[in-house]
Amino acid sequence: MVSLSDIDLFSLLGFGEAAGMELLFAGSALIGGILFLLWFALMMIGGVAADIFDGIFDTNIEALGADASFKALTFQGIMAFLMFFGLAGLYTLKADGGDSLAIIAGGAAGFASMYGTGKLFQFFIGLQASGTVEISESIGSRGSVYLRIPEGGVGQVQVKAGGGLRTFSAKAEDGQGIATGDFVEVVDTISGTLIVKRV
Fold it and tell me: Taking a C-beta distance cutoff of 8 angstroms, is the pair 116, 84 a contact?
């Protein structure tokens, strides 16, 4: 009966006779590839990977977190470095490039993949929308009074801002009351309150 200890992964992949630099590159590619496949499988299961690796490394390594920025030394960056360092090094060795050239090629490919991974995640972060609308975006917008604005007091208006209809607290520019349903235009904002005038 065959047990897991009898399986030689390097022999299975054709590197049973590998030694020296070839073994280093093969091991790097194998470790990076296995980590990538495990990470990908866990992400497909439903984000389990973030929780597991947060616990293992006692850090927040969630790649697409709202506060993420470009950081090459993430778990994903290290996986990419190991995988591409090993693959480029092996390719260079197999092409009779020599050990020095293989190390240079592997290092360049590894750092390029790490940098590319970081930039890719930075791009994805940039695509995320916070959903927060700045109140100043509503200046110049027109809408209607939702809750009556009393004389010298505050009511509510609905105006277009941030691509949708939003409800904000509002005061009349002239201090006069404005009835529900009247049309208004936003002329200014003060401390989270719109200043509106009748249209």
Answer: no
The residues, ordered by sequence, that sit 6+ positions from 39 with a Cβ below 8 Å of its Cβ are 49, 75, 76, 79
CA geometry: angle 122, 83, 15, nearest 5 deg: 170
Exposed / middle / buried, residue 94 (Cβ in 10 Å: 0-12, 13-18, 19+): exposed
Tokens 């073994």, residue located? 23
Query: Cβ atoms within 10 A of the Cβ of 80, count?
Result: 26
Confidence of residue 169 (pLDDT cuts 50, 70, 90): very high
Give the separation between CA 51 and CA 39, rounded to whole angstroms: 12
SS3 (DSSP) at 56: helix
CA separation for the pair 146, 156 (Å, rounded): 5
pTM above 0.85, yes or no: no
Domains of the chain: 4-127 (no CATH), 135-198 (2.40.50.140)
Listed in sequence order, the DSSP H helices in 67-184 are 75-94, 99-127
CA distances from 64 to 33, 77, 83, 122 (A): 21, 13, 21, 8
Q: What is the pLDDT of residues 51-74, one digit of tens each?
A: 665 656 555 544 444 444 445 467
